[in-house]
TrEMBL record:
Name of the protein described by the UniProt record: Carboxymuconolactone decarboxylase family protein
InterPro entries xrefs: AhpD-like (IPR029032), CMD-like (IPR003779)
Domain Carboxymuconolactone decarboxylase-like: 29-94
Cross-referenced Pfam families: CMD (PF02627)
Entry coiled-coil feature ranges: none
Transmembrane domains' residue ranges: none
Length: 159
């Protein structure tokens, strides 16, 4: 069982609320390509330092057939050929949203809106904010990697 769910199991109402919200977001967040969605979420997890989220996010990207090798180069996203110009904008937006205080600029929002459309920008913003919530909770509770990325943990069934 994923550790965050085991921890939330101590508060049945929050477990139910969290599972319901995660399923709803998974069904609703389909405007952006999976590669951009997962890149933004992964970057947020790395910026906060949640090893559980990085581990689980790597597994999700691998299972979706995305390029997980590029994740090792995420800190070099500005120069790595594995990242497109749009990838770079998404990573920098995730960085700006994750900073304290938040340092998102009007120019970032305008450029992402132009490239992704209103719904794409809203989806991106929501997913980064949601990952901030997840990672900060997991990090605060001391949850660490369970071995999902390496295959050492029991596999989470994917639809």
């Amino acid at each position: 069982m994923p550790d965050p769910m085991a921890v939330l199991g101590h508060h049945r109402g929050l477990l139910l609320a969290s599972c319901t919200a995660e399923l709803a977001v998974d069904r609703a967040a389909r405007v952006l390509p999976a590669s951009l969605r997962e890149l933004a979420v992964f970057r947020t997890a790395t910026r906060i330092g949640c090893s559980w989220c990085v581990d689980f996010g790597t597994m999700l990207q691998r299972d979706a057939g995305l390029d997980v090798a590029r994740l090792r180069e995420i800190d070099d996203h500005r120069t790595s050929p594995r990242f497109t110009e749009l990838d770079r904008l998404v990573v920098e937006y995730a960085d700006a949203m994750t900073e304290l205080p938040v340092r998102v600029t009007d120019e970032q929002v305008a450029e992402l809106d132009r490239r992704l459309g209103h719904r794409g920008l809203l989806e991106l913003t929501y997913l980064i904010a949601l990952e901030n919530q997840r990672t900060r909770m997991n990090h605060a509770l001391g949850l660490t990697a369970q071995g999902f990325a390496s295959g050492e943990a029991c596999r989470v069934p994917m639809p």
